[in-house]
Amino acid sequence: MLLINCPLCGPRAQAEFNFERPVETIIGVDVPTAELVERLYTRTNARGPSAELWRHARGCRAWLRIERHTVTHVIASVAVWEPQS
Ligand SMILES: [Zn+2]
Question: pTM of the predicted model, to two decimals?
Answer without folding.
Answer: 0.86
